[in-house]
Amino acid sequence: MLKKENDMLKNEAKMMKVGNLQSESVEVANGKEIDGCSVEVANGKETEGCSLVSNIVGGSFRFGALTPPFDGVNIGDDVSTCLTKWNITDKVTSFTLDNATYNNVMIVEIKRQLLRSGSNLLFDGQFFQIRCRCHIINLIVQAGLKLLDGVVDKIRAIGKHFEHSIPNKKQFYEVAQQIYHLDGNKRLRGDCCVRWNSTYLMLDRALYFRRPIDHVIEKDKDLMQHILSNEEWAKVSTIHGFLKTFYDITTEFSASKTPTSNVYFKGVWEIQCSLSEVENGEHEYLANMVKLMQKKFDKYWNRYNLLFSCACILDPRYKMKFVEYCFTTLYGELYAKEKTKEVLKTLTTLL
């Protein structure tokens, strides 16, 4: 498997007219590897080591281990060395990163070394650093989840009650299957404080098991304090429906076997429309939640990335008319024309 992937990568490099490339190992989805030391995982914390990883459609390939210390300057120096070694310093368009401070330092260092070597940066480096879209969505949603009231805490407590007791768990799923004829392979889910999508999935599964949850709670004195009224279940359903937009867009942005740059503009537009709709909606608890989310949105996405707006235009499903329509629905015709001209000018320059 490793040899096959390495051969594919080398052939890809030859087509790009890039110098020698050597891949030491293949990184798999769960953060482990087939060969080599452990690599950097989520939240910018290292396990046993750190490596430079390049994302290719269909897989991730590690080209070389980074040398400690793992700060922005040293990582930037190692990345610059690799770019020079592979002879692609003039082919680098951008880096997609989260908002960690050391990433900002790293980008400054890489840009400095590329300019010093005489490399030409696209638009003078205006698009050299691009914020990770899924990471931004995470920041936006996490800001809002802080204001969710006790209804989500009740769902969380119910899930823990059943998962931490084998007899209670067995009884619950027997009720779900035998009385309500639900899928026996599905299970209640917990959530993780740093993964907002786990909260969405927890609510999704709780709604699926709503009837057996109510059935069991009514007969369990230990759970009576967590019983949900019809109004609270309606609130859970509303929160779930609101978060579904973010979950679906994150899934689309995270695709590994299809291009994603062309769906960026549409995804961000859908998020902004969802925030505006809920802010002016009938549910006060969601409106308060959205105010914090809107602040995060404005911080990172107040100006749609021009490069990805161009990618949307080049998608035959959308083209220029879709970009014009999106800007018009958000800002009105006058400002939409200015934004459209700016995107079109950028596209013309790229071509």
Structure description:
One of its GO terms (molecular function) is DNA binding. Helix 2 (72-85) packs across helix 3 (101-116) and helix 4 packs antiparallel against helix 11 (284-301). The protein contains 14 helices and five strands. 58% of the residues lie in helices and 6% in strands. The protein has a three-stranded antiparallel sheet, covered by helices on one side. Strands 4-5 form a two-stranded parallel ribbon. With 351 residues, the protein is mainly α. Mean pLDDT is 79; it is low at 16-62.
Write the layout of secondary structure elements.
Blueprint: H1 2-15, E1 25-27, E2 51-56, E3 59-65, H2 72-85, E4 95-97, H3 101-116, E5 129-131, H4 133-145, H5 150-163, H6 166-178, H7 196-208, H8 210-217, H9 230-253, H10 264-279, H11 284-301, H12 306-314, H13 319-331, H14 333-350
Parallel strand pairs: 4-5
Antiparallel strand pairs: 1-3, 2-3
Helix pairs in contact: 2-3, 4-9, 4-11, 6-8, 7-9, 9-10, 10-11, 12-13, 12-14, 13-14
Query: How many beta-strand elements?
Result: 5
Q: Based on helices, strands and strand pairing, what is the structural class? A: mainly alpha
* Average of pLDDT: 79
Low-confidence stretches: 16-62
Number of helices: 14
**Largest sheet, if any?**
3 strands, antiparallel
Helical content (DSSP H or I, runs of 4+): 55-70%
Summarize the structure.
The protein is mainly alpha-helical. The chain has helices spanning 2-15, 72-85, 101-116, 133-145, 150-163, 166-178, 196-208, 210-217, 230-253, 264-279, 284-301, 306-314, 319-331, 333-350; strands at 25-27, 51-56, 59-65, 95-97, 129-131.
